[in-house]
Design goal:
The chain is an alpha+beta fold and about 450 residues long. The protein contains twelve helices and 23 strands. The chain has helices spanning about 30-35, 40-45, 70-80, 125-145, 195, 220-230, 255-275, 295-305, 315-320, 345-370, 375-385, 400-410, and strands spanning about 20-25, 30, 50-55, 60-65, 90-100, 115-125, 150-155, 170-175, 180-190, 200-205, 210, 215-220, 250, 280, 285, 285-290, 310-315, 325-330, 335-340, 370, 390-395, 410-415, 440-445. The model is unreliable at about 1-15 (pLDDT under 50). The structure holds one RNA strand of 77 nucleotides.
RNA sequence: CGGGGCGUAGCGUAGCCCGGUAGCGCGCCUGCUUCGGGAGCAGGAGGUCGCUGGUUCAAAUCCAGUCGCCCCGACCA
């Protein structure tokens, strides 16, 4: 999860010439008054704030909030650091634990404390901030699709789902195997809301005093839950190769002590040659030999499958006689004999193929459970009540209509999808009220 | 905060109605045989039955209180 440092170029980014974000760390405890400076922000986060009221055995003059997010403390500092347009843009990233006292928790998806990455930037113009917010959404998308093999729909949030204090919120929405949507990452154009609240001003090239334009963006350990619920099957986890701590596990098979030493010796040779194999720049294949004694090979197979390790190589006496092993893919459970001589290339290619296949399978499943044709409201209600999925339809833009649909079905507008996800023919009327559609919306039940 | 449910060995549980020797599976230890899809046999270790009080000759079991956890709803990355 190292994509936020800004060192890479997003496939969907518009520029690559920007400075990467600086990694930083800001305090956990935030004076309560900071939170109150931006009206929308405090309204959104006050109900879920964990508050420190006592310290050193005494009641504090001013309570401290355990950060639910760090806009307020970071922009307080930005305001001190920025005087001139020459100080901008300023781009910072931090990994931090945050606390949000939600009424209900859900393992990985909504925990009281969670680890995340949050980025905060300040810019000279609205357009530059907008570009940054969009660019980071693309970086997140690239990571989710390229690494987690979890396809996402990107788009803009409606007012009702917008981040507290933001001008616009964009999100990545993934479909889990129960057809519910998971908001896997967000990026916000904060406009000048926070810069006005925190007096984050600069002198422009022409000499005038201006408020800066901010963005913030984040992804969390929720992505771990996304990976589990995107790829897991009845056998256990399926971890995409790029994320797997072990890419290939060698399971030796033997009876006698003599066989054992022969097989383990061969396994070690294979491991050594695979670790020499340059698969990615400055990265080696991650190989483990499961030499545990007193555990039968079958038991080891089940265990590594449960843990989702992408590839297993079985090596036994019969294989050694032929200078081969049996390679098994976790995703398809396909088994085939492989020559031990040319293993590096084979394993490397197989892992790459698995990474692509896992994304393709997930994408296919998402599309198979998406409705893009015109749908009546009655049929929509049935659909959300039964199998569920993503429904693309017109929306009149009226929040009341959006709220009514949620009341009726529990489904919400996950986003107003970006162009590439929209229907070939733009919907003309609203899903519920038949008024003219002002935009296309993607509806789903969500976590 | 409402509505359900559950606390018994490291983990999962039976027993509770109908009070009387705490049992099973997994895991763990020792030995032998095994080992190409979750090993078999033999022996063994491990329990203040969440906690407090009450009823009783006797409480895991009945009663009261209390603490903790899980699920469903309202809130949300």
């Amino acid at each position: 999860m190292a994509m936020a440092s800004g060192s890479g170029c997003s496939a969907s980014s518009t520029t690559c010439s920007r400075r990467p974000a600086t990694n930083a760390y800001f305090p956990l405890l935030i004076p309560e008054s900071f939170l109150h400076k931006e009206a929308q922000h405090v309204e959104g986060f006050a109900p879920e704030a964990a508050v420190v009221t006592h310290g050193g055995g005494k009641k504090l003059d001013e309570p401290l909030i355990i950060r639910p997010t760090s806009e307020t403390i970071i922009y307080t500092m930005f305001a001190k650091w920025v005087q001139s347009y020459r100080d901008l843009p300023i781009l910072m990233n931090q990994w931090a634990n945050v606390v949000r006292w939600e009424m209900r928790t859900r393992l990985f998806l909504r925990t009281t404390e969670f680890l995340w990455q949050e980025g905060h930037t300040a810019h000279v113009t609205h357009d530059e901030a907008e570009e940054e917010a969009r660019r980071m959404l693309g970086v997140y998308r690239d990571f989710m699709e390229g690494w987690i093999a979890m396809p996402v729909v990107t788009g803009q949030k409606t007012d009702s789902e917008r981040f507290a204090g933001a001008l616009r919120t964009y999100s990545c929405e993934a479909m889990m195997q129960d057809n519910k949507a998971l908001q896997a990452g967000t990026s916000h154009n904060l406009g000048q809301n926070f810069s006005r609240a925190f007096d984050l001003k600069f002198q422009s090239e022409s000499g005038s005093t201006e408020f800066a334009w901010n963005t913030s963006w984040g992804v969390s350990t929720r992505m771990v839950g996304g990976m589990v619920m995107t790829h897991g099957d009845d056998v256990g986890l399926r971890v995409p190769p790029l994320l797997a701590p072990i890419e290939l596990v060698i399971v030796p098979i033997y009876r006698s002590d003599v066989e054992r030493s022969l097989v383990l010796e061969a396994a070690e040779r294979v491991r050594h040659s695979l670790c020499e194999w340059d698969r990615r720049e400055s990265s080696r294949l991650r190989v483990h030999i499961d030499a545990r004694d007193g555990m039968k090979p079958g038991a080891k197979y089940y265990e590594w499958e449960l843990r989702g390790i992408p590839l297993r190589l079985e090596i036994g006496p019969r294989d050694l006689a032929n200078n081969q092993g049996v390679l098994v893919r976790r995703d398809t459970r396909e088994k085939r004999p492989v020559s031990l001589d040319v293993l590096g290339e084979d394993v490397s290619e197989t892992l790459s193929r698995m990474q692509r296949d896992m994304l393709a399978v997930a994408l296919e499943r998402r599309e198979a459970n998406s409705v893009r044709e015109r749908i009546s409201y009655d049929r929509f209600r049935q659909f959300m009540d039964a199998e569920g999925g993503f429904v693309y339809s017109g929306w009149c833009g009226d929040p009341a209509c959006e709220a009514q649909i949620e009341d009726d079905t529990k489904a919400t507008i996950r986003c107003l999808p970006d162009e590439e996800f929209r229907s070939a023919e733009a919907p003309t009327t609203c899903l519920r009220c038949d008024r003219a559609a002002t935009s296309e919306a993607m509806w789903a039940k969500s976590y």
